[in-house]
Amino acid sequence: MAHQSYEAQKKAVYKGLVFLAIITLIEVVFSLFGKGHIIWEGAAHSVVVKYVVGLIIIGLSLYKAFFIIFEFMHMSHEKKTLARSVLLPMCLLIWAVIAFLYEGNYWNNSRSYILAKDHEKTERVMPELPVKEDVKQVGHH
Amino acid sequence: MATDTLSEIKKTTQEGQGDWMGGKPPMKASYGKLMMWYFLLSDAFTFSGFLIAYGALRMSVPTWPVPDFVFQSFPGGFTGMPLIFVTVMSFVLIISSVTMVRAVQEGKRENKNGVVFWMLMTVIGGIGFLSCQAYEWYNLIAVEHMTLYENPFGSHTVDGVYINDDGSKGEAFKAGQSYLVHKTDGEFHFRKFEITSGENAGEIAYETLGPKAFGALFYCITGFHGFHVLSGVLFLLIIAINAASGLYVKRKNGYEMVEKIGLYWHFVDLVWVFVFLVFYLL
After folding, report:
1. For chain A, is the Cβ count within 10 Å smaller at the N or the C terminus?
2. Contact of B125 with B93, CB cutoff 8 Å
């Protein structure tokens, strides 16, 4: 864009607007499809659809982010060192995302394990009491 | 345009050692612009912290409110329109981002009226987005009664049939289906149902509230983003007034202040891309 005329720059901006709007619409359509609202209702129960649609939407969002940074924020006109010093630290987040999602999944597993164990115990010891009372009694021991 | 800014920097450095005092600005960027970039980097980490916490908490529970069910209202009392309203919100923000780019372009040409006009357009876009968010929050707080610590949006984990108050059977539902626990006179009303699938089939159960963290995460993250939009609107207004008063004409640096607030405004749009992704699309 650095060597473009004013008119060409103006045109590029409005092209960018249409481009971002279309990507957003595609994302929404994919999301609604993945939740079984349009085209095929069974999509909501398919694990394959869930992951494929999820990855497509995440990919499109990352592309939108890239487009905003490099076109609208003019990062492509800055020095490479500037771009690197701003963008490279973001790579730390890749690990943070993986680690914390993994950790969250672990919390989920231990939570359901504890729930299952609790259920076993209360059923054996005092089957008649309503759940809330159960919790109190167990707490006193 | 890069060549323009370069010549500007050379001029200022010759005149009075420039912003950076060494005669040669690092990374060929002015001090203010570089610091805006680094501020945005630190802000990106703040938002990432929020969004990663959201991801971890969402993974830590068996079910999560389905966005198509939670966000299906449209102003005017319409419901059953999944994601339509938030798509409109996204468009408003994208359009305001484009008007901001136009303001920066006009600034580079030293066109004062153009800058002020497009900045005011951006302000209108920002206010439009905030109004949409106000409606969304109003709907969640006053109509659906979601609070920071109570989330009425649940999902069934088993198939079942609702049992009406008079003991007759109501409609059937499937595992994974979402429900909203209604609140009247300050109390939630959990509907009774009979389980029809799994090992507990035949047992009677009640609806429960959804994952507790959802309300706090939603209000804090979209609220923090909305606060950024609000402060962005205020700064846009201040800079538009300054531009209109001719303050930046004297500086002769291609309306760099407009460029800096432009960076901030695009960043707000950028964050919305990810808020939109994790809260509404996935």
Report:
1. C
2. yes
Are residues A4 and A64 located together in one domain of the fold? yes
CATH code of residue B140 = 1.20.120.80
Q: Do B233 and B202 belong together in one domain?
A: no
CB pair distance less than 8 Å for B82 and A32: yes
Contacts of A107 in chain B (CB under 8 A): 56, 59-60
pLDDT in tens, A56-105: 999 999 999 999 999 889 888 888 999 999 999 999 999 999 999 999 99
Q: Does A23 touch chain B (CB under 8 A)?
A: no
Q: How far apart, in Å, do the first and last CA atoms of chain B sit?
A: 39
pLDDT of A141 strictly over 50: no
Q: Which residues contact A102 (CB under 8 A, 6 or more apart)?
A: none
Q: Could you report the per-residue pLDDT of B79-111, keeping only the tens digit for each?
A: 878 889 999 999 999 999 999 999 999 998 889
The answer to whether A14 contacts chain B (CB < 8 Å) is yes
Q: Which helix (H) or strand (E) holds B204?
A: strand B204-206
* Residue contact A9–B105, C-beta within 8 A: yes
**Closest residue in chain B to residue A50, using alpha carbons only:** B282
Which chain A residue has the Cα nearest residue B63? A108
Which residue among B44, B55, B270 sits closest to A68, beta carbon to beta carbon? B270
When divided into structural domains, chain B yields a total of: 2
Residue-wise pLDDT for B229-240, tens only, equals 999 999 999 999
The reported pTM is 0.85
Contacts of B39 in chain A (CB under 8 A): none
- Inform me whether the C-beta atom of residue A112 falls under 8 Å from chain B C-beta atoms: yes
Does residue B168 share a domain with residue B256? no
Whether B195 and B261 share a structural domain: no
Q: Is residue A66 in a domain?
A: yes
Contact B101 A16 (CB under 8 A): yes
Residues of chain A found within 8 Å of residue B3, distances taken between Cβ atoms:
2
d(CA B160, CA A50): 24
- DSSP classification of residue B141: I
- Give SS3 for B175: coil
Q: Are residues A8 and A73 in the same domain?
A: yes
Share of chain A above pLDDT 90, in %: 52
**Record: contact B273-A61, CB cut-off 8 A:** yes
Query: Which sign does the torsion angle of CA B39, B44, B49, B51 carry?
Result: positive
Range of the structural domain that residue B253 is part of: 27-148+213-281
Q: Considering the domain boundaries, does residue A82 fall inside one?
A: no
pLDDT tens-place string over residues B153-199 = 998 888 889 988 888 888 888 888 888 998 888 888 888 888 888 88
Number of domains composing chain A = 2
